[in-house]
Write a structure and sequence with these properties.
single chain, six-stranded mixed sheet, about 45% helix, alpha/beta, about 350 residues
Length: about 350
């Protein structure tokens, strides 16, 4: 909860600093005339910013005061395609399968003789520092370039232009036209669409598609160039703050496993497993030792303290049910942190005992 609060404080302060007419901007950016109350928003923000010097070093870029998002016109709207036939969810297919399906789709839908292929890529250190962008263009005649400024007027370009990108979230945001920060990009695409048929096509990343890999290589080269512009938008500031807080959280939780089968459970199953894992539940041991609720921490069987291990392993009141759920001896670790089937068995056992977890 403390980390969440800190993230909210830093994010809100970053927003105030980028609102040119907001009264809080001056209060945050200028020295104070008197002592601040320790519990005030400004005091807590400055304490946090001193812990993260790189946040103080940022040059805030004002949030553009757009009145509305420009709507796509029928004549100036690119086709946005965020899927490829046969390509499933992330990590569900091998790199070779993804490459084969993607190349087949590109060959059939955007034949090189008729389309100008533009691959775009971006790179940054932990997505927050030393950014770079790369653009790789292949014209119908076979010529290749590493620029994009010539697409609209180049004699080499065809009337059909397809942009390939692995940034699905950006394509989806363009499609909905709700993100005002993409207004400049929308305007540029609208201009290109006046004389060209334009398609924005998502492609999977890191599956050895030649053009996409070339753009990524150029983007990585860009990260090594001098980064003279230290100004940051509000969206960039939010990304930096969240990345720092996430890194801090991972350091505090070294045993965190992002592939934990816990995440595949239903919501009700997750609640049960979480309470059994942490010991923060409604069983007698936790209620009595933490809140002095009840007469003791003993289980109703009177043979031991009513803990997670006692319930799952030794409570004689549930021996019959335990043998039905687990035909073979299983450790507490296996029941709480094992396979998906193990966790589902544990959740089923907890429900059928009738114990309030």
């Amino acid at each position: 909860m403390e980390d969440r609060r800190d993230t909210k404080l830093l994010t809100q302060a970053a927003k105030f600093k980028r609102l040119p007419t907001h009264p809080m901007k001056d209060r945050l950016c200028q020295p104070t005339k008197g002592r601040l109350k320790r519990g005030s928003f400004i005091h807590q923000t400055r304490v946090l910013e001193r812990r993260h010097q790189d946040i103080l070093d940022q040059q805030p870029k004002d949030i553009p005061q757009y009145l509305e998002n420009p709507s796509w016109s029928d004549e100036g709207r690119p086709q946005i395609r965020c899927s490829i036939p046969g390509v499933g969810k992330k990590d569900s297919q091998s790199c070779a399968e993804l490459k084969s399906l993607t190349i087949e789709h590109i060959h059939n839908s955007y034949p090189q003789r008729q389309w100008t292929h533009v691959y775009t890529g971006g790179s940054a250190d932990q997505a927050v520092r030393s950014g770079g962008a790369g653009i790789y263009i292949k014209y119908p005649g076979g010529r290749e370039e590493e620029h994009i400024s010539h697409i609209e007027h180049s004699p080499l370009s065809s009337n059909n232009v397809v942009f390939f990108s692995d940034a699905k979230s950006v394509l989806q945001a363009l499609d909905t036209a709700r993100d005002k920060e993409l207004n400049d990009l929308s305007s540029a695409l609208t201009s290109l669409c006046r004389a060209h048929t334009v398609v924005l096509q998502w492609v999977p990343s890191h599956c050895n598609i030649l053009g996409n890999e070339a753009a990524d290589t150029l983007a990585k080269e860009g990260t090594t160039k001098d980064q003279n512009d230290t100004s940051t938008t509000f969206k960039e500031a939010k990304t930096i703050i969240k990345a720092k807080q996430h890194k801090k959280w991972l350091q505090q939780h070294p045993h965190y496993n992002k592939n934990d089968t816990f995440h595949l459970l239903t919501r009700s199953e997750q609640v049960l497993i979480f309470r059994l894992r942490t010991g923060h539940n409604r069983m007698n041991h936790h209620l009595f030792t933490k809140f002095r609720i009840g007469q003791s921490d003993l289980c109703p069987c009177q043979t031991g303290s009513m803990t997670t291990e006692h319930l799952l392993q030794t409570c004689p009141l549930h021996d019959g049910l335990r043998s039905q759920i687990w035909a073979e001896a299983t450790t507490v670790q296996g029941k709480l942190c094992g396979s998906l089937d193990d966790l589902q068995r544990t959740a089923t056992f907890a429900r059928r005992t009738g114990v309030s977890i």
